[in-house]
Write a structure and sequence with these properties.
Blueprint: H1 13-16, E1 21-22, E2 25-26, E3 35-40, E4 47-53, E5 59-65, E6 72-79, E7 82-85, E8 94-99, E9 105-110, E10 117-123, E11 127-134, E12 136-141, E13 147-153, E14 157-164, E15 167-171, H2 180-183, E16 186-190, E17 196-200, E18 203-208, E19 211-214, E20 220-225, E21 231-235, E22 241-245, E23 251-253, E24 256-257, E25 262-268, E26 274-280, E27 285-291, E28 297-299, E29 309-314, E30 320-325, E31 331-337
Parallel strand pairs: 1-24, 2-28
Antiparallel strand pairs: 3-31, 4-5, 5-6, 6-7, 8-9, 9-10, 10-11, 12-13, 13-14, 14-15, 16-17, 17-18, 18-19, 20-21, 21-22, 22-23, 25-26, 26-27, 27-28, 29-30, 30-31
Length: 338
């Protein structure tokens, strides 16, 4: 899935990135008004968040207690209403980030020293095994079992990797020349065609069969990718906005809700429906939102009236996962569906 030169894709920034402001309304992508479900907590934890789901509605995420060096974080799978602990590679900090349609799950875990991290692959009936380089973090896995993520190189800092059938390769932006800082490509997601989305320094980028293409503007981060290779992008410079960067190079703006300062689209499905959060007051207030394939923004309910929430991923059945606050300020992993 990689290697070669990159081309800079020119995007009409003023026209393509400028997102209109619109009021929040209920989402027509759901057959009925979306309902929110609290997915719960693993025993002994106080907060949880859902990070991904597959087309069978199986959800993965993390359940935590505490913060900082003493925090305990555990990875979970939610299937048919049952929340289960995925275990660890010996340490107390574990996070599940991605799941494919085979039920294979990836993420990261500390080893017994609670300092060294390894990317992991968890498979039903086989449990958790380390994959990729030492000090690695896995971000996603496709149905072919290809894992993408990043690791820390003591000399060069973060570098991207791709792991397939036991073989790890470095993923980078060859057009960056001899400067490894400019060659960095840090993957965030991979689709079933092997197309990877990620970031080259402060630019959203897409990797296709070894060639990395930049989204044409600095000050941007990539979000989700769908089967067609369409990517959600958030820009923070020179203005804050968001758009869908389609596989053919065209762009589609994503509306910013009235009253919000910025939006962060983090997932997109095959229909082009995207999900994420709308933020107000320097991220002090967050709301979960859903964009239709035309870029129109809609609200997703929270667990309590006016409570904060954020959406992370959406599948092709328009099931959405993320997090929401309870009245006491703790966080719960949630699932939205009609």
């Amino acid at each position: 899935m990689k290697a070669d030169r990159r081309q800079i894709l020119t995007i009409g920034v003023s026209a393509a990135i400028a997102a209109a402001t619109a009021p929040l309304v209920s989402s027509p992508a759901f057959a009925a008004a979306p309902q929110i479900t609290d997915l719960g907590l693993l025993p002994g934890t106080t907060d949880s968040v859902a990070t991904d789901l597959n087309e069978h509605g199986v959800v993965v995420g993390n359940s935590t207690i505490g913060s900082g060096p003493t925090q305990v974080a555990r990875a979970f799978r939610w299937k048919n209403g049952v929340l289960s602990d995925l275990g660890s590679l010996g340490g107390q900090k574990v996070s599940a980030i991605g799941i494919n349609n085979n039920g294979w799950i990836v993420g990261s875990s500390t080893l017994a020293d609670n300092t060294t991290y390894r990317a992991f692959l968890w498979r039903p009936g086989l449990g958790m095994v380390p994959v990729g380089p030492v000090d690695g973090f896995a971000n996603d896995i496709n149905d072919a079992g290809v894992v993408v993520g990043h690791y820390y190189d003591q000399e060069f800092g973060r570098r991207g990797f791709r792991w397939e059938n036991g073989v790890t390769t470095v993923v980078e932006y060859a057009a960056g020349g001899t400067d490894l800082e400019w060659r960095k490509f840090l993957p965030t997601q991979i689709n079933n065609n092997g197309v990877i989305t990620g970031d080259n320094r402060d630019q959203a980028a897409r990797w296709v069969n070894g060639t990395v293409t930049i989204a044409g503007t600095g000050g941007a981060w990539s979000g989700g990718i769908n089967a067609a290779g369409d990517v959600t992008v958030t820009t923070y410079s020179p203005t804050e906005s968001a758009f869908v960067w389609k596989a053919d190079g065209a762009t589609r703006p994503l509306q910013v809700p009235a009253g919000a300062d910025r939006v962060w689209p983090t997932g997109i499905n095959a229909d082009g429906d995207a999900v994420g959060s709308a933020n107000t007051g320097n991220n002090n207030i967050m709301r979960a939102v859903y964009w239709s394939e035309t870029g129109v923004v809609h609200s997703l309910p929270s667990l309590v009236p006016g409570g904060q929430a954020g959406a992370t991923r959406v599948n092709n059945s328009s099931q959405v996962v993320g997090w929401a606050h309870l009245a006491d300020g703790t966080t719960r992993a949630v699932l939205w569906k009609s």
